[in-house]
Amino acid sequence: MAGSPEFDINHPAEMDYPEHERTYSRFLAMTKWGSAAIIAILVGMLVGLIMGAGVIASVFSFLIVLVIAWVIFR
Q1: Radius of gyration of the chain (CA)
Q2: pLDDT, tens digit, for every residue of 16-55?
Q3: Rounded to 10 degrees, what is the CA torsion of 60, 63, 65, 68?
Q4: What is the tally of structural domains in the chain?
């Protein structure tokens, strides 16, 4: 059986909104750059494995996609 809450539901604690905004902006940055990294890895794999261009072309295509993402996200 559920008991009564141990905290005051009529007077909630103060929120630290600047910290919430910093956390959200970091989350967006991690999501953005994580997506760019995954896309760059997939393009590198496409060039190296499926197109058969080799390791060097795969690494160059990976770096090119990251540079394009940096230019777009800047």
Answers
A1: 22
A2: 889 999 999 999 999 999 999 999 999 999 999 998 889 9
A3: -120
A4: 1
Q: 60 is in which domain, residue-wise?
A: 32-73
| The two structure tokens encoding residue 67 | 């540079």
Which residues are CB-contacts of 57 (< 8 A; sequence separation ≥ 6)? 47, 48
Q: Is residue 18 part of a domain?
A: no
In a domain, 54, yes or no: yes
SS3 23: helix
Residue with tokens 């007077």: 11
